[in-house]
Amino acid sequence: MDSQAGLHILYPRAEIDSAVKRLASEITRDYHDKNPLLIGILKGSFMFLADLVRQLDFPLEIEFVRLSSYGSGQQTSGKVKVVQGLRTAVRGRHALVVEDIVDTGITVAFFMDYLKRKKAASSRLCALTDKPSRRRVPVEIDYTGLTVPDKFLVGYGLDCDEMYRNLPDICYLEE
Ligand code: IMP
Ligand code: MG
Questions:
Q1: Distance 104 CA to ligand 1 centre (A)
Q2: Quick check: CB of 69 below 6 Å from ligand 1?
Q3: Has residue 175 been placed in a domain?
Q4: Can you tell me which atom of ligand 1 is nearest the CA of 69?
Q5: Which of 47, 98, 101 maximizes ligand 1 atoms within 8 Å of its Cβ, making it the mutation to test the pocket?
Q6: Least packed by Cβ within 10 Å: which of 5, 35, 129, 171?
Q7: Is 162 exposed, middle or buried (0-12, 13-18, 19+ CB in 10 A)?
Q8: What's the domain count of the chain?
Q9: In this structure, is the dihedral angle defined by the CA atoms of residues 23, 24, 25 and 26, taken in order, positive or negative?
């Protein structure tokens, strides 16, 4: 994919795999006896969640929500919309939110607050990538895969206008 104009590999799949394995062992240590509810934020987390749960060999449940803070392209609208909400009660559950990237923090800050209001027994955040240079609201990430530079990333679930989610590597788009 590196041959495509403007697209460069930042984290090849082997590097992503070892980050996912490390996260899985941290999560196993903390959740193996808790039957957690893993909540993937769609669409970006689908590939990460699928790889992560295949490394988790203990009882757990999986849910998805679809949140949207981006109108289109690379700009956040600053407002979070629940496009598809939870279908499973979180009250009393150990919720682990699985996100592709924490950028401004607006999306996950909104959702972590929502879980608290719904009285989850605990709520933690696992993010494959963290882009701290862009943070606008404070967010505590409990499990971080890769700390990434201030570039617009695509691939491994991440999109730009819905394209590139299928790339197996995390790439950046040259402006
Ligand atoms: P935040 O609310 O600004 O933290 O952004 C959250 C959402 O924006 C993420 O779940 C992604 O879907 C999207 N996003 C943020 N940065 C990037 C990026 O570099 N590439 C692709 N999507 C991004
Ligand atoms: Mg997105």
A1: 8
A2: yes
A3: no
A4: 2
A5: 101
A6: 5
A7: exposed
A8: 1
A9: positive
Q: For residue 68, is pLDDT > 90? A: no
Residue 103 annotated among the catalytic residues of the structure = yes
pLDDT in tens, 87-144: 889 999 999 999 999 999 999 999 999 999 999 999 999 999 999 999 999 999 999 9
Q: Range of 50's domain? A: 14-149
More confident call, 123 vs 73: 123
User: Whose alpha carbon is nearest atom 12 of ligand 1?
Assistant: 44
Give me the catalytic one of 103, 130, 142, 150: 103
Residue 115 in any domain: the answer is yes
Query: Is ligand 1 within 6 A of the CB of residue 55?
Result: no
Euclidean distance between CA atoms 65 and 82, whole angstroms: 8
> Could you tell me the CATH number of the domain that includes residue 49?
3.40.50.2020
* Ligand 1 within 6 A of CB of 167: no
The answer to whether residue 170 sits within a structural domain is no
Nearest-angstrom CA–CA distance, 27 and 68: 26
Say if 23 falls within a structural domain: yes
Bin 92: left if φ > 0, else alpha if -120 < ψ < 50, else beta.
left
Q: What is the pLDDT of residue 147?
A: 98
Q: Establish whether residue 109 lines the binding site of ligand 1, counting it when its CB lies within 6 angstroms of any ligand atom.
A: no
What's at 33, amino acid-wise? D
